[in-house]
Amino acid sequence: MTDATTLPLRNPRTGQSDGQLPITAAAEVAALGAGLRQAQSTWAERSIEERCTRLDALADALAARRDGFLDALLADTGRWHESVIEVDGTIGAIRRWAQQAPACLEDAAPVEEAITFIHSQQTWVPYAVVGVISPWNFPLMLTLIDAVPALAAGCTILAKPSEVTSRFVPLLREALDTAGLGEVFKLVTGAGGTGQAVIEAADQICFTGSVATGRKVGEACARRFIPASLELGGKDPALVLSDANIEHAARALAWGSFVNGGQSCMSIERVYVEAPVAEAFIAALVEEASALELAWPDPKQGQIGPVIAASQVELVRAQLADAKAKGARALTGGELVDHGGVWCPPTVLVDVTDDMAVVAEESFASVLPVMVVADEAEAIARANATEFGLSAAVFTQSPERAQRVARQLQAGGISINDACLTGMVQTAEKQSFKLSGMGGSRMGTASIRRFVRARALLINTGIASPWWFPAA
Ligand code: NDP
Question: Which of 82, 86, 163, 231 is catalytic?
């Protein structure tokens, strides 16, 4: 039974409610924020090496609880293979941040300025409390992708994962305690109201989620004059050019569009293929898509898990109905499958037009509309004709053409002859364009620098400055 202090937990494989999630009250979120602010100065005074040692301990604590995290993610998301990648990838990423951070945050030695008797020294000051609000598609990774670099920088963390996928929270608390991080990293649970309370309690916000909620979060942060890093939705295009290796492109795009049932921000959601290779490409893509199987009844067999969030089911159903009503044809898939929970079989759509919701709006499902274009210029123009700008992909065997086309795409990460590399490669910096977000890069050294403010120490080495008033 649900009361005002809990929310029902839903199993996406069965569609049944099978547990309760406590809602952290706003007053408690505020108290946790105040406690973190107090704890932060001690945390920031520790050397960066000491902080990173604790992060390594967190990676160990996660590894020791790997099976428990997998069970929690399977229960919340209904998918197995992606959960294995998520847990192992998160552990690896924590170790990488711990290794990278010391070099990113060293205070520089004083250097002589253009005014030679003045020396300047660059130092870094962490924000005290970083609030992290994360979505349901990669619940563990997208909570820690901001939290861990911020901890390395000397911040404390107040995190609220999505209400849809919070079953890992007790286990993460346990791991944080084991790693000696329990006092500087607090997790709260609940829905939007709890997220709002996090914004009120924090000094900086990292939000991952939809454009609509991101806008509310950005506005709330602006009112408080605190920085907001917003990582929002996408409608990533792939361009298959006439000289592409067609088999290679079809395989890459089947993975890039259908992995995690398309429920990834950097999922490929539109393909523009040049006319001379369109027929061969579509046939190859359909062959790849048709070979994929629903991971049902055994989550470890098959590649496609269920639609995770109940709220997504109607959105996907409506997009498919709209597309069909306007003349689209599904060459494979095309109908949702109800096993209690709902599955979206890999769906390749052709005869699609720009006025269809499935082309214009984020689907976040294993649905891939393919559009035939006359030439490279049309492919680029239509790929850019969107309010989103997260990432994109280009397929061509000509390195010069790849460079020329990639540099014209309005997105922060472009995979060349592959798809969704921005989710796999964490060193190259990238930012979101257009409504896909704002703020510093989550990748590369900027991922850590986002959490500090630059403070300059400006040192007069002992000479009367010539601009002073004459001596009295
Ligand atoms: P939502 O925007 O619905 O929710 C994101 C988080 O915000 C959740 O924790 C949610 O809580 C919380 N929230 C809701 N309302 C408020 C509010 N008023 N103030 C503060 N917090 C609030 O996104 P989804 O969870 O549905 O995630 C899917 C979206 O995330 C897709 O658009 C996808 O593209 C995007 N995404 C972007 C990524 C990127 O890196 N760019 C990566 C992954 C996903 P609750 O869920 O409890 O309501």
Answer: 231
